[in-house]
Every structure is written in structure tokens, then in C-alpha cells.
């Protein structure tokens, strides 16, 4: 009974070490994921800055076009004034025919139409410039927000780094304590299972077998079944621990006690107790 439960302690200790390493790997994965998010944020900021630069260049081009249009309007206004002067001179001079006057008036009308069209174009360009300014301000605000988010996440990453270092130190300290506290215990169990239990089992078998051949065959059969049962218990003890852990976590009262040591001893008790009862009944039957 004691050997079947105590021989499983190395497997439990190995499982605890594996879980500790998994915790470190998961923490490193979370750190790598946070760093990837910060890099993605920086790439987005670079992309937004490029868009901002293109918007600024487009606005400057539109402003230059607007100035050229204004210059053209000024030149057309001067030309209109000149035409008005010429028209006045023509009206004073009676030598010009009415056809020439009509042609000049048509030209003036076309110039006024072109001027109105230029005014409309200027208005459209001003509207586009205002919208471009709005977009530039929106992009600038977005870039500032992204910079704030990146700064905040960088602070969080630093905090996670510090927490990870503290956690690693605590895990190493717990592993050292667990190793130091279990070494003596494991030596004691190995000594009992490797020396005393086989010795007294052999004495008991020899004592019983010397009395009766029928009892000898029964005892031999019992010891063979005991060895097979011990092998099966060692094989399925880990699965039984998992079932015990699930059962304890489902109950609110036992959930707080569902740590590795308690689960191990409960699983061992579930296996050993029926075997111990059967062994006691067998001894009482043959005594």
C-alpha cells in the first residue's frame, strides 16, 4: 500500500516542473505578442504620417493653383477695363461700325462668363482646401492618439517585464524549496520500498507457505495479483489525479484545497484504501 503511493512521487514532482516551465513559456509568448502589437502601432503611425505628408503636398498644390487663378482673374479684370476703355473710344469715334461694337460686346460677355467661371472654380478650390485642412487636422489628431496609445502600451510592457522577472524569481525560489523539502522524504520512501517492504513480504510469504501447500498457492496467487495491481495503479494514477482534481474544483468547499499535494494523497487514498481493506480481510480470514 505505501509503495504504490510513494513510488508515484517522482512523477508528481516531474509534472510540477513541467507546469512551471509552461508558465514561463506562456509569459514569454504574451510578452512577444505585446511587442508585436507595439510594432504594428508604429507601422500604422508611419503610414498615417505618410498620408499626412501627401495631404499637405496636395493642399500646397491647390493653394498654388488658387493663386494662379487669382492672377488670371486680375489680368482679365485689367483686360476688361482696357476693353471698356477701347469700347468707350469706339463709341466716341463714329468711324467704327456697329459690327465692331457688337464683336467687342460679345468678347466682353465671354470674358465676364469666363470670370464668373473662374470665380466658381476659386470657390470650389477654397472648399476643397477647407476640407483638406479638416482631414489634416483629423489625421493629426489620430496620430497624436496613436502616439499616446503606443506610449501607454510601452509602459504596460515594461510593467509586464518587471512582473515577469518577479514571477520567475518566485517560481525558481518555490522550485528550490520544493526540491530541498522533498529530497529527504524521497530518500526515506525509497529506503522503505526498496529494503524493508520486500524483506518483510518475503518473510510473511515464507511463514505462510511453510504451514500449508494450499495456503502457499493462495498466497502466491495473492502476491502475484498484488504485483499486477501495483503496476496498474502506477500506470493509471495520473489519470485518477486528474479526475480527483476536476471533482474537487467543481465543489466550492473543496476547490480551495485542490492543489497538487492534496490531490496526490486523495488519489493515493482512493487506490490504497480498498486494497488495504481487502488485505486486512484476507489476513483475518487466514489467521
TrEMBL record:
Q: Signal peptide: which range, if any?
A: 1-27
Report the superkingdom from the record: Eukaryota
Name the keywords, alphabetized. Answer: Membrane, Signal, Transmembrane, Transmembrane helix
Q: Does the keyword Transmembrane helix apply?
A: yes
Keyword flag Signal: yes
Where is the chain membrane-spanning?
262-283
What is the protein named?
Answer: Uncharacterized protein
Q: What is the lineage of its organism?
A: Eukaryota, Viridiplantae, Streptophyta, Embryophyta, Tracheophyta
